[in-house]
Design goal:
The protein has 209 residues and is an alpha/beta fold. The chain has six helices and nine strands, in the order H-H-E-H-E-H-E-E-H-E-H-E-E-E-E.
């Protein structure tokens, strides 16, 4: 898909409100460094930045990023880095983010789960992985898109090792109406926390923060 073409074809693609899964699951998190995967027009990144987070907001579409930056305005200058990149091929710094948020981003399966493992490795000790998606039961295959080619929340949970605590792994009703022309009525949610590092005295600490 040409994502720039999609955004240019419509004055606004998304509602402008942060995703309900993010609001429900991240409101209780202490602000730190966040990675917003597939940030689109920026509502999630802006919500996080206004709550004190420093956000790396990544998308393939230059048009979406330009809209997002315009919406954020000078008020959030320096709190959000609007970044054009393809995270299926772009390396990420290990242990750099206190929150890695993946909201409705179709994360494709790759040999050896390479893309997913890079995202997991980017979560800092003590940090949170938050994966929200449409319930697969609400999705149908169509030309160019097969839901079976993308990760489900329970699959990702099954790949987490003992360094992770799964806090939420469920399907729940959407908190917002389904996007126009769709029948998305439920969300799947995975929230997992990476174990903090133990200090010399046995107390838990995080590295570099």
């Amino acid at each position: 898909m040409d994502w720039d073409e999609m955004y240019r074809g419509r004055e606004r693609v998304f509602s402008g409100a942060p995703n309900g899964v993010l609001v429900a699951e991240a409101s209780d998190l202490a602000p730190g460094q966040a990675l917003d995967v597939g940030c689109g027009e920026g509502a999630d990144a802006i919500w996080l930045a206004r709550r004190g987070w420093r956000v790396t907001a990544v998308d393939l579409s230059r048009t979406a990023l330009q809209r997002a930056a315009a919406t954020a305005g000078p008020e959030l200058a320096g709190r959000v880095a609007w970044t054009r990149a393809d995270l299926t091929v772009t390396p990420l710094p290990a242990g750099a983010f206190d929150l890695v948020s993946i909201q409705y981003f179709p994360l494709p399966r790759r040999p050896g789960d390479a893309v997913l493992r890079r995202l997991l490795a980017a979560v800092a000790p003590g940090g949170t992985l938050l994966f929200g998606s449409h319930d697969p039961a609400d999705l149908s295959a169509r030309p160019g898109f097969d839901p079976a080619e993308y990760y489900r929340h329970d699959e990702i949970a099954g790949l987490l090792d003992d360094d992770w605590a799964v806090l939420v792994n469920e399907t729940r009703p959407r908190t917002a109406p389904a996007p126009e022309g769709t029948r998305h009525t439920r969300d799947t949610v995975l929230r997992a926390q990476r174990a903090p590092v133990l200090g010399d005295n046995g107390h838990r600490r995080t590295e570099g923060r």
